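2024-03-11 09:14:02 INFO worker-7 job=invfold-0412 stage=load source=structure_tokens
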């Protein structure tokens, strides 16, 4: 009952914040998952997860380190040559948004102005490398959110494993977590296909498409890393590796600062909607709304994650 109640409260909070349709899921310690949908949406609808994808890429980094394929101190240009000054960034800097790279290359931003409904269209890896080569990074060390950095991280990990990014994600993260309705799903599978974005080479930073139930499986890794298929890698990905904003960042996962109730989360937004995953030591939540992102939804989701009013849930 606690999971169903948590899902219902999250749904109510998002509806109060203006979400007219969507799907949410919740799982608490000692119970199975609960999924709740409203509007013309079902619990099996597929959504664009946007930057929630970064949580998958962060796990892939931790898994590659654990397997000895890469070191967090390896430079980008060891795996993705031709990236110019950006190639000096380490994988750790890319995963913690502290590489000095901008959110996007200037060339990508200019193309996005011409195609605002699909800003990443035509983004092949050779083009991404050319655009990156023209970037002049700032001083590394200070965290500043970078889609470019995580996209390059994903391609570096794919090169180290000698396989395409989505094959790598499927084999090492999605399949072990039984995220069977997730990955580079075709637009036709989406609840809102007309608004979908073609992320192209930026896929490791935002290309995941998934059901809310599958996103909950990803979130549950942060609630119970020791019970995941890859406990050591999960613990590494969820360890604070750098300070960011008012909290920390692990390998791509955003981490809170509460001493008694640490939390891990990530949000995402594309043309087709908004998504959120979050977890602490007592619960995990996921949410998807197929509409233009509103900041109040992030606030509602974080508040639901951090609330202490669930009967029977350990709040310590």
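2024-03-11 09:14:09 INFO worker-7 stage=emit residues=316
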């Amino acid at each position: 009952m606690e999971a169903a109640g948590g899902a219902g409260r999250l749904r109510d909070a998002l509806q109060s914040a203006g979400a007219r349709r969507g799907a949410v899921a919740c799982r608490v310690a000692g119970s199975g998952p609960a999924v709740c949908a409203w509007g013309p949406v079902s619990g099996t609808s597929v959504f664009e997860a946007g930057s929630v994808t970064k949580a998958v890429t962060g796990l892939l980094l931790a898994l590659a380190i654990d397997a000895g394929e890469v070191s967090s101190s390896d430079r980008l240009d060891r795996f993705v040559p031709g990236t110019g000054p950006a190639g000096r960034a380490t994988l750790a800097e890319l995963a913690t948004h502290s590489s000095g790279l901008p959110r996007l290359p200037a060339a990508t931003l200019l193309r996005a102005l011409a195609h605002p409904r699909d800003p990443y269209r035509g983004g092949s890896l050779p083009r991404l490398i050319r655009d990156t080569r023209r970037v002049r990074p700032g001083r590394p060390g200070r965290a500043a959110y970078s889609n470019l950095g995580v996209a390059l991280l994903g391609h570096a990990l794919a090169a180290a494993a000698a396989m395409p990014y989505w094959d790598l994600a499927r084999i090492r993260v999605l399949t072990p977590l039984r995220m069977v309705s997730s990955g580079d799903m075709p637009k036709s599978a989406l609840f809102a296909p007309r608004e979908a974005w073609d992320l192209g080479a930026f896929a490791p930073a935002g290309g995941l498409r998934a059901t809310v139930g599958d996103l909950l499986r990803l979130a549950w890794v942060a609630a119970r890393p020791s019970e995941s298929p890859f406990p050591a890698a999960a613990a590494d990905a969820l360890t604070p590796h750098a300070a960011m904003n008012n909290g920390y960042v692990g390998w791509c996962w955003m981490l809170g600062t509460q001493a008694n109730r640490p939390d891990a989360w990530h949000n995402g937004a594309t043309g087709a909607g908004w998504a959120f995953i979050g977890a602490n030591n007592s619960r995990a939540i996921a949410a998807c709304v197929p509409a233009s992102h509103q900041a109040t939804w992030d606030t509602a989701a974080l508040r639901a994650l951090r609330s202490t009013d669930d009967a029977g849930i350990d709040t310590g």
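2024-03-11 09:14:09 INFO worker-7 stage=report msg="Confidence is low (pLDDT under 50) at residues 309-316."
2024-03-11 09:14:10 INFO worker-7 job finished
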